[in-house]
Amino acid sequence: MVIFSISNARYTYVHDQKYPSKDVDIHHIVSRRSNAKYLVYATALLVLACALYLYVLKGKSISFVYYSLLFDIFLVKLLLGKPVKKESVVIMPAFGVQLETHYVSGKVIRYFVPIDNILKPVLIECVTPVTCYWTLSLIIRGESEMVLVFKNLRPPVKMLVHVWKALCAATDSKEETCTHAE
Amino acid sequence: MGDSPPQKHRILMVSDFYYPNFGGVENHAYYLSQCLLKLGHKVVVVTHAYGNRSGVRYMTGSLKVYYVPWRPFCNQSTFPTLYGILPIIRTILIRERITVVHGHQTFSTLCHDALLHARIMGYKVVFTDHSLHGFGDVGSIHMNKVMQFTLADVSQAICVSHTSKENTVLRSGLAPEKVFVIPNAVDTAMFKPALERPGGLEIVVVVISRLVYRKGADLLVEVIPEVCRLHPNVRFIIGGDGPKRVRLEEMREKHSLFDRVELLGAVPHAQVRSVLISGHIFLTCSLTEAFCMAILEAASCGLLTVSTRVGGVPEVLPDDMIVLAEPDPGDIVQAIQKAIYMLPEIDPQVMHNRMRELYNWRDVAKRTEIVYDRASKCPNQSLLESLSRYLSCGAWAGKLFSLVMILGFLFWHLLELWQPADDIEEVPDVIFSHNCDEEMLQKS
Q1: Which three-class secondary structure state does DSSP give residue B272?
Q2: Nearest chain B alpha carbon to A10
Q3: What is the pLDDT of residue B435?
Q4: Which residue range or ranges hold the PIGA GPI anchor biosynthesis domain (chain B) (predicted)?
Q5: Residue-level pLDDT at B173
Q6: Are A115 and A170 within 8 A, CB to CB?
Q7: Positions of chain A with pLDDT under 70
Q8: Are B202 and B228 a contacting pair, CB within 8 Å?
Q9: Which residues of chain B have pLDDT under 70?
Q10: Is the N-terminal amide bond of A83 cis, ω within 30° of 0?
Q11: B46: closest CA among B88, B10, B82, B76?
Q12: Are residues A14 and A41 in the same domain?
């Protein structure tokens, strides 16, 4: 049963409750179909078409076609390799938090964090050499590194806030934030 | 009709030189940011990562610092990529709703890159030059051309002394009316004189500087033995490290001055005051200096300064607080002798109080605020209007600079298509509830 959802151009956030127990809380971040992959496929087809043209009409070596096929495979693998369909957070307040990554291929990777191990869920700003974005992480007891809740997708903060609040409630953490100037 | 309230700016300070590194530029950027925050402006700092310090950090007074994970390439500067930094700078400018970009220091490649991209995107830019440069050697010629490129389309510029202003105007071809002179300041709360002056008949001369050619280490080698010969009650304490340390050690050995010349090695910034207050006279033999911060720190600790008459140094202190000499060993020895005779008239506490009034960061911030106001009033110009200024930078250089700008403009528009500005989330302004280091800003 979908309780609440938000969408933008790239992601859809869904707050779900599948189980009869009202305690189990599920939050999904679904990656919306991107037009970028069609651009990648179009580029790959164009490269292959050029190679075939050179082979059939210009009498060039067939190795051109083989190399273009190899290049296409490399291009598709590089840009579209392991696409993630959605990432989910299953919150079981008395038990723990399960982080799930659903791939387009159907493969699902699950990672469970016991509730006692979670010190605090935090919304932090991540800085890479090319961009900045908000991310939701779990501070784990006895661990030097935080656990990213969404490892592959980068949903906007307006979606992350709902998951963060649910995690705070489940782990009995205060929803502490700095004062925001109006 | 009442005056309109002063304009509040959202400033992005950009430099490769920032904490945890220590130095004049780092200090300037930090204290200026703190005082601008106190004046009600929003300040964000962008620098490169230092070791494992990367990502977003908050400093005193909710000062937000982006430690971008680009590694330093040479002398704490990042590799000049031209366009590599554009995506992150664009993201920060949008998410922090920046209105003015303020770059610090000629040697900072991050600063040059950021100012270039900010101009492409139509932001107002201000540049502060903290150093003096030559005109003759290959390095200076190259650097001056880069400066000419960066400052061709800058809104306003700031220099730390009038000498520095002349130097910058000559090197960059920038209109003098666009360049403001705002001297550095000192945190007098950190540099208080000792409660009791070092007693006895002994006179202690303190030297704290990097032991390199530019800082006049070779002059020191000739000055110290002569002063020790003329004044048996004079002792030297030398703090700092560098390639010229070997020469000082050789001099100490040659003249048997082990009991009178103490070499401390590198002195952490937190311990500078404790070294200064153990002396009576502060000596600096720099061969070039835009504005010597060390002189302010020494004067704030109540030390009488002896310095070479170079660059912006004569502008730093009033005549009764400093003795100037030509960068010549004989002249420096005479200046030290003059300072020794002046010592009885010096009251460290009076000197400290004068420094507190003469040099404070709040005054620097208020003057910088005026520069930002001027910059924000500069008319917005299209790329074509800007290109004419780049073309005038030289027969070949002008065309190259214009090409760099056009490619940057195209890359920016490509990024706008890839990730529209609307998709970049704006960050709420953070105000921490506790007031840390309130005292520091009250006193400075």
Answers
A1: helix
A2: B423
A3: 46
A4: 48-137
A5: 85
A6: yes
A7: 1-4, 17-23, 32-41, 53-55, 57-58, 60, 62, 64, 66-67, 74-82, 173-182
A8: no
A9: 1-6, 71, 197, 430-444
A10: no
A11: B88
A12: no
Residues with Cβ within 8 Å of residue B221, at least 6 apart in sequence: B244, B247, B248, B251
**Do A89 and A62 have their domain in common?**
no
Q: Was domain B203-358 assigned CATH 3.40.50.2000?
A: yes
Q: Which of B88, B90, B415 has the highest number of chain A CBs within 10 A, making it the mutation to test binding with A?
A: B88
Q: Which residues of A touch B430 (CB under 8 A)?
A: 178-181
Handedness of CA B219, B220, B226, B231 (dihedral sign): positive
CB-closest option in A127, A156, A157 to B66: A127
Residue-level pLDDT at A20? 62
Q: Do A127 and B69 touch (CB under 8 A)?
A: yes
Contact status, residue B22 vs residue B385, Cβ threshold 8 Å: no
- Paired with A100 in beta bridges are A88, A110
Break chain B into its structural domains and give their ranges.
Answer: 10-185+362-443, 203-358
| Inside any domain, residue A180 | no
Predicted confidence at residue B419, as pLDDT, reads 81
The residue from A24, A57, A80 where one domain ends is A80
Q: Do B88 and A181 touch (CB under 8 A)?
A: no
What pLDDT, on the 0 to 100 scale, is given for residue B258?
Answer: 86
Q: Is B430 on the interface with A (CB under 8 A)?
A: yes
Say yes or no: A106 and A20 in one domain.
yes
Which structural domain range is residue A111 located in? Answer: 2-32+82-170
Task: Check if B44 contacts A (Cβ < 8 Å).
Answer: no
Task: Report pLDDT for B207.
Answer: 94
Instruction: Find the closest chain A residue to B42 by CA distance.
Output: A181
Distance CA B388, CA B385 (A): 6
**Whether residue A22 sits in one domain with residue A6:** yes
SS3 content of chain B, % helix, strand, coil (to 5): 45, 20, 35
pLDDT of residue A34: 59
> CB under 8 Å to B66, separation ≥6 — which residues?
A127, A132, B44, B45, B46, B47, B55, B56, B92
B17-68 per-position pLDDT tens digit: 997 887 889 888 999 999 999 899 989 999 999 888 889 989 888 899 999 9
Spatial separation of the C-alpha atoms in residues A175 and A162, rounded to whole Å: 11
- CATH homologous superfamily of B10-185+362-443 equals Glycogen Phosphorylase B; (3.40.50.2000)
- Structure-token pair, residue A107: 């493969």
Give chain A's domain count: 2
